[in-house]
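Page 47, continued from p. 46.
Same chain as before, 235 aa.
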Amino acid sequence: MGFSEFQQEIGIFFYNEKLLRQAFTHSSYVNEHRHKSLQDNERLEFLGDAVLELTISQFLYSHYPRMSEGEMTKLRAAIVCEPSLVSFAEQLHFGDLVLLGKGEELTGGRERPALLADVFEAFIGALYLDQGLESVFQFLDKYVFPKIEHGDFTQPTDFKSMLQEYVQHDSLGELNYRIIQERGPAHHREFVAEVLLSDKALGRGVGRSKKEAEQKAAEMALHELHALRKPLQKM
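Result:
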């Protein structure tokens, strides 16, 4: 599938197709084609992240008037977390359109979760620049909002936000994350993350991306904090 077919499939046609192409251009492709003066999608990803936060927030605010700020924050975090963004990208076969360098291609870049999540954010950024928020809302209304209404994100998956809220509520200290190990071949890379509470290790997690590893470390930390609290409640 090419960019023309893709636009026909989603029913959105870019005025500036260079923006669309840039959204799917990985830095590895740019590095191998320097003579073409191409731009990668990293700046669009930055913009798209902010646009997604705004549009999802507005949707939740408008459609769920009884939902508290905390509930909206957790639900939004579940919608814009990496696994959710990857599912959106896979649904529309974004991986088929990504422009990759040969090395990245050979090591399975098209299926890499972090790369697909970044491309989805970059696409949202490009659509916003090309046609404004209205078109972004129309796109999300077709591919994302129905999933929210269906209840696909009712279970919070953003353990980092949950841990942050837990720690702040009880004034337990300051949280920090660090990647302590990278292992495995490039096409099957694993990251090991550790979360520290006031410089004391509280949880460790392993994932295919740094974000996933940090989420799993936060999940383990939450279990540890709950386990520590139970004996105190019985005393």
